């Protein structure tokens, strides 16, 4: 059995169980999957991020994309691409360089790089604005 998070065309979110991915597709094509709030048969799978445990205890994220999610993914990819094209890569010195820029010790400019969770937490506590860039499928292929 598979539990899917679903969205209808009217923006309602709900969950439903199916025997398989094919079962969902067949029921949807026959308009048997409907929104419990409004009855709309225009239903798509929502973004799903179940934790998948591997032998190395590393978690992976799985995405089941409907049309709206595909559009959102393309927008995220475009945003990440634009940041990378218009900002300076500072690598693991991101937190240090962001702090220097914030306190006027370095030239104001767009930067991107890596930061640990503790470094990001410290930046946020100091009121330094930053935005984590998502790791997208094309980044890992």
From TrEMBL:
InterPro entries: DUF1178. It comes from the Bacteria. It holds the Pfam family DUF1178. This is DUF1178 family protein.
